[in-house]
Design goal:
Number of strands: 9
Number of domains: 2
Oligomer: single chain
Number of helices: 15
Order of helices and strands: HHHHHHHEEHEHHEHEHEEHEHEH
Shape: globular
Largest sheet: 6 strands, parallel
Helix content: 40-55%
Distance between the termini: 26 Å
């Protein structure tokens, strides 16, 4: 059974229409021109980008000589980031497979491709936030009669160019812009007074088939991008160099306990768990679309997981919180809005760590024991870890990253997780409960793990509170 982690599940018809893109349905004039709906400029951005800066950028770009070109440059950046991420995914997968084949541990802290992927992930999120803000503001300005007609016409022209680019029939662009389209559609539905799950109109793209048909080309084009000297690569290099993924190595053999603090005992990666013990974790929810399915799958398959949720989503989804608690899941904190903590001032850190924990404790009905920094950024920063520890929380990292935020093919996600699990033998698996591919991939991974029940290779899934309590008790 030594090759159990390389078993590949048989592909099934796993992607339904619910995984398809959403059409961007624009907001009627009567719903954006007045004060009935909150303007994008009045809502706080979802990360560390300052809303005043975003609004300044919108106005500056609209006043430029070639506003369409200026706005579309940001869209080109999003495409390039997506493709470059694929090149680093391929390098990361090669590393992982080599480690698995040699039965050697794969250390994320030593992986240059992985650190660059984390940097790209962060840059991608900030770029999508800008683009979402830009598009929604262009819609609003187009219909706002308090603005000069010339400005309204200019905003409409730019918006239509923007929309044409987003609606491209090019399959690679459809993949690159899929989540951006979804984010824009969510914001526009909210402006129309609908919930984020209302009014969804699926389009015909088959995400998995499109990825499989274009994967080699995307990787090739991505390598062309990372070989260039440009602003994106400069940002990636600068951010990747700062990433230090603190691990649990270097402990004395009998120091197998965890407690809040800025040292190794205050950070969990799972590298010192007992053999074949794994903690399944999900970030970024709860999502009213995908989280309930994941909870049902876990219950059906007889396993429990730890959910690191954002306070801004928790406050809107108490029913899901209650369902997760009833099913015995562990609930933890992932900040207020997924801001990059290393870029925040004291007030920002207070909101993202302390205020979010207070809000979630009320929703969860119990103190929070675990916190995970967005992007993993800040887990090796003493100041940030100190704030987490002051709130009596242990930081939780991971040693298996499924990369489900970039890869939408459930089968390749599963293969990547299996290879890392074989190489590492124990630890913490990272998924995100906001993606359709994560719903399917995590279910497949659990089904595969169940095939080893009753054998010496049986995989035991635990929640983080469960394994920490066991290890702290010396069990």
């Amino acid at each position: 059974m030594k090759n159990k982690y390389l078993v590949i599940p048989i592909a099934t018809a796993f992607f339904l229409a619910s995984c398809a893109k959403h059409k961007i349905q624009e907001v009627p004039e009567t719903q954006v021109a007045g004060n009935e709906y909150t303007h994008a400029s009045d809502r706080a951005p979802t990360s560390s980008i300052d809303k005043e800066n975003l609004e300044f950028m919108v106005q500056k770009l609209l006043d430029s000589n070639k506003p369409e070109e200026e706005f579309l440059k940001f869209l080109d950046d999003r495409k390039d980031i997506y493709l470059r991420a694929w090149s680093y995914v391929s390098l990361f997968d090669k590393e992982v497979l080599e480690a698995a084949e040699k039965n050697q541990e794969h250390n994320l802290n030593d992986s240059v491709p992985y650190k660059k992927l984390l940097a790209l992930w962060n840059i991608a999120q900030r770029t999508e936030e800008k683009l979402t803000y830009f598009y929604v503001r262009l819609v609003q300005i187009s219909y706002d009669k308090s603005e000069a007609k010339e400005k309204r016409d200019r905003a409409k022209k730019v918006r239509l160019s923007f929309k044409r680019a987003l609606d491209s029939k090019n399959p690679v662009l459809q993949l690159a812009f899929q989540e951006l389209r979804d984010h824009i559609a969510e914001e526009l539905r909210e402006l129309r007074g609908l919930s984020k799950t209302d009014g969804v109109v699926p389009t015909s793209i088959d995400v998995v088939a499109t990825i499989r048909a274009n994967r080699a080309k995307m990787i090739k084009d991505g390598f062309k991008g990372i070989d260039r000297v440009d602003e994106i690569n400069n940002k990636v290099e600068a951010e990747a160099e700062k990433i230090q993924l603190e691990n649990e190595s270097g402990r004395v053999p009998n120091a197998l306990t965890f407690e809040p603090g800025i040292g190794p005992t205050g950070n969990i990666m799972g590298k010192i768990f007992p053999k074949n013990v794994w903690a399944l974790t999900y970030d970024d929810g709860p999502s009213p679309v995908t989280t309930p399915i994941i909870l049902k799958n876990l219950e059906t398959l007889g396993h429990k997981a730890t959910f690191f949720w954002l306070a801004q989503h928790v406050l809107k989804n108490q029913t899901i919180v209650d369902d997760a608690k009833a099913k015995g899941m562990a609930l933890a904190n992932h900040s207020w809005s997924h801001a990059q903590l290393t870029k925040l001032d004291d007030a920002g850190l207070n909101k993202e760590i302390l205020q979010s924990s207070d809000a979630e404790e009320k929703a969860y009905g119990h103190p929070i024991r675990f916190f995970r920094c967005p992007y993993g950024a800040g887990n090796s920063v003493s100041k940030i870890r100190g704030i987490i520890a002051k709130k009596n929380m242990i930081h939780a990292f991971w040693n298996v990253d499924t990369l489900d935020w970039q890869d939408k093919d459930p089968d390749s996600i599963v293969r990547r997780a299996q290879a890392q699990m074989k190489a590492n033998g124990r630890g913490v698996v990272l998924f995100h409960d906001i993606h359709q591919q994560s719903v399917i991939a995590s279910k497949k991974l659990l089904e595969w793990s169940n095939t080893f029940k009753g054998t010496p290779e049986e995989i035991r899934w635990v929640t983080l509170p469960e394994i920490v309590d066991e290890m702290n008790a010396g069990k």
